[in-house]
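Give me structure tokens for this 280-residue protein.
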Amino acid sequence: MRDISEDLIQSHADRRFRSEYDYALFEYYRSAKVLAFLERAGVRVHGRVLDAGCGGGGMPLSLADHADEVIGIDPINRFGDAGVKLALERGLSSTLHFLQADGMRLPFAAGAFDLVLSHAVIEHVEDAPLYLRECRRVMAPGARLFLSTAPYLSFAGAHLPRLKIQIPLHLIAGRWIAFRTFRLLARYAPWTLKEPAHENSFIRDARNGIWKHDDLLEFVTVSRLRQQIADSGLRIVREELHLTSTVRRLPAWLGGWLGKSALTRDALISNMEYVLESVN
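Here you go.
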């Protein structure tokens, strides 16, 4: 597996919003952390692999270094100017393919893949249970599904900007009010937001005269996702719930309790990673 280079990840993170190509490169280097998680879980990247929501295509590019064939799908052709170009540049166009397709209606036969990946996708699909069932349907016997997301109450899972004064507006006022407040701030008072304009889609859309729509369609919680996994005919092989850096700085006993308590964990978990397998 590829070594994790925090310097490379950070350097590409700093320029990831310049273009889809730059974002795909950032995804490529960041994906070393996903590969490390899979290795810890005893999952080998091999055979036919599906990235069921590939975005610009950086993750499939990374997987193609290890698998026989990788297919990346996304409902929007973000990969056309990024993943396709990178595949050609790196001589992977024969094993790496991209397809515009809906994750809730995968155009593949049952049992077609040895590994399926869903990286920060499920929160953006209209029907999460159907999406999980489709991922399960295309898994070959013994295949694994990697799933990552974040609870919608956390800063990471909310997919909202941050105020310069660290007030969790979505926790105080609710998502409906928070989202519309950020739209107004991006248009009329962008100086109140922490992220610079090139990293803030709210500001970019406001400057382009676009009235941003909320693309967070599934309100993920730990308990809800666990139930959806079970209902879709999958079971958890490995689960890692990563707490925010603020919680990690607390005494271990307190941070551990806050991270496990059903009352607080959804606001304090920055990332959730799973390896899943089919029950049958």
